[in-house]
Amino acid sequence: MGIIAAIGRRAPRTRALVALIYGALLLGAVAMLYPLGLLAAGSTKSIADQREHVLIPRFLVNDTALWQKHLEALFNESLDALNIAFDSDYVMFADIPLPPADAPDAAWVPLWREFLAADRLPSAAIALGHYWAPQAGAFPFQLREFRRHLQTKYGPLPAMNDALGTDFDAWYSVFIQPPAYLFPYAQPDATPLATEFDAFKLSAPAWCQVVLSVEGFYKRLYLKPRYTKDIAAYNEAHGTAHATWADITLPADTPPTATPQERADRHEFLTHSLSPLWHTNGRLHTPELAWRAFLAEQQAAGRELPAAQLTAPLPQFAHHAQLFRDNKPAIRRELLARNYRTVLDYILFHGRGIFNTVVYCALAVLLALVVNPLAAYALSRFRPSATPQILLFLMLTMAFPHMVTQIPVFVLLRELGLLNTFAALILPGMASGYSIFLLKGFFDSLPRDLYESAQLDGAGEWTLFWHITMRLSAPILSVIALQAFSVAYANFMYALLICQDPKMWTLMVWLYQLQQRSGPGVVQASLLLAAIPTLAVFLACQRVLLRGIVVPVEK
């Protein structure tokens, strides 16, 4: 029966009161869901969009935002790598526009794809994107694929370590930093793992591959730091008259018309800054030269080329813009799920975190539902004369924070030799003063007539406890079980203190380790995934709790 009768609900004041109550509840729901929505949106972020605070990530509805986020992943969060490859001077990934499909450079894309298909470039000229996220701390698409490739080829981790001469202790830690083949110190096939990586990157999809630009490297990291980005300053120092930086190229040999300063820059760059992979005895053999030779061959064969200079930079910007349009759904799915995949890869294949957590939580709930009800039943059923003092003692245990008791508990467990065991995790919290106090009050409310009737029928004390007390206490036992699970599942500091052996770490300890090396997006994704078990347990107990409130205990 409702609190307000059906006739009373028709009164204007009652309707206004009901509307006010529902409005307050709705406002409270929004106040709770808004932060949750921000957390869910933040769990998909990377460095490119980490400053955005919106409920719906922009890259899900805006192609330009997705393009910028894709470029960040394509160049492994390195803006210098992007500016070298595109021969550009962007300051932020958020500044890079998505060129239209009919941009002038788009006319070169079919020729560029023919050039790439002709296999005229060495493997060192190809860089792999979507592989490394040093700031975001995520495991991108190609890194996951590389680990899967090694696992498929070599089998278990020890076999891979033996074959490649590595010493990785888990699959999540298998990684090789992409070799920077433009720099002098990088050498192909330096290790068996590097050889494996170079072979793997050639099988990656085209939207994950980038061609290295020696000319872009020359301008971005050698000329511009010396002469600024102002082409006029370069012209003044070299006695040249270039209109833009795009006019500056690196021919195979030093041009006879080169000025002394141009000759000096070229010599110093080749000697100290560029890898020997790209020059032999002062003669260059770069991707740009291979591309221009290909165009010259096409022109000699009578093919009509787009109206532009053959010395223009590599048309990679337009090429990747077209690849982006062709693979937009796959890119969006990858960037949406990347942080979640990172967390799942880490916790599923990292130690025994899930197993330890399941065992710990199961034992904590089981013991909480055995020890606490037995203690509360004894106090409620037999009513010892010292019951007030016992309850006071139980309540006093709530006056000390867990941080205060951790040190004496640690010392005690160490003396007993129980560190790094499940017993160390479970025994200190097996009995709860608050739970006993709560259960004792609930047991006191149960009708005594039931116990007397059962005793007349010959029921023993165990029968009274199990078949009457426990069965009529399902709602309060659900509260105790939910509390025990929540405390055990979220236990981090105590679990780390008592079990310092990684083999006994629980899920929360492993997630803490992950968060120390991850960006905000991965951290928020880990928080959301970690909240799912608690939510599932609460939903499972919700019906029992509501039934205990709505349905009378005694029928």
Summarize the structure.
The protein has 555 residues and is mainly α.
Could you characterize the architecture of this molecule?
With 555 residues, the chain is mostly helical. It folds into four domains: 8-42; 58-212 and 323-347, no CATH class; 214-312, no CATH class; 351-550, MetI-like (MetI-like fold, Orthogonal Bundle). The chain has 24 helices and four strands. The strands form two sheets. It has a two-stranded antiparallel ribbon with strand order 1-2. A hairpin with a 2-residue loop joins β3 and β4. α13 packs across α24 (520-550), α14 (353-382) runs antiparallel to α21 and α23 (507-516) runs antiparallel to α24 (520-550). The radius of gyration is 34 Å and the shape is elongated. It starts with 11 loop residues before the first helix and ends in a 5-residue tail after the last helix. The model is unreliable at 550-555 (pLDDT under 50).
Distance, first to last CA? 16 Å
Rg, rounded, reads: 34 Å
Largest sheet: 2 strands, antiparallel
Percentage beta strand: under 5%
The total count of strands amounts to 4
Whole-number mean pLDDT: 87
If you consult CATH, what is the topology of the largest domain? MetI-like fold
Count of the separate structural domains: 4
| Helical segment count | 24
CATH architecture of the largest domain: Orthogonal Bundle
Assembly context of the chains: single chain
SSE topology string: HHHHEHHHEHHHEEHHHHHHHHHHHHHH
Structural class: mainly alpha
The unreliable regions are: 550-555
CATH top level of the largest domain? Mainly Alpha
